[in-house]
């Protein structure tokens, strides 16, 4: 008979990325604050703030990477991202979209559309201008709150 092999459980990891490029470049989203939010809110074994050596959250420029040694749901990461957007009044402007199997991306909503569903150049320009005005207002609010 052939020798029996020891059955060792596979050590698998779950890796997910959040691409925050557009909102961070526009200055309406603070990636470091979001990283801190995730560190405080992610639950491990039913307890928040219990990351230990199981879940690692890393911040690289405009991306956040979550690596877990235990089972971790991509949907849970989306839920926490939406919760953060709601808390910071950004939920009306940004949405969380899966760009591939392991990555979520924050994108702006398409603000205005014509009745037939297609957008004209004028309405796109107006919605883009409105978004820029909103970004300027948010930057001014941040500056006044710092002073």
Automatic annotation (TrEMBL):
Domain of life: Eukaryota
This protein's GO CC annotations: cytoplasm; ribonucleoprotein complex; ribosome
Pfam family, one: Ribosomal_L22e
GO molecular-function terms, A-Z: structural constituent of ribosome
Gene3D superfamilies: 3.30.1360.210
Keywords recorded for this protein, A-Z: Ribonucleoprotein, Ribosomal protein
GO biological process terms, semicolon-separated: translation
InterPro entries noted in UniProt: Ribosomal_eL22, Ribosomal_eL22_sf
Similarity section: Belongs to the eukaryotic ribosomal protein eL22 family.
Name of the molecule in the record: 60S ribosomal protein L22-like 1
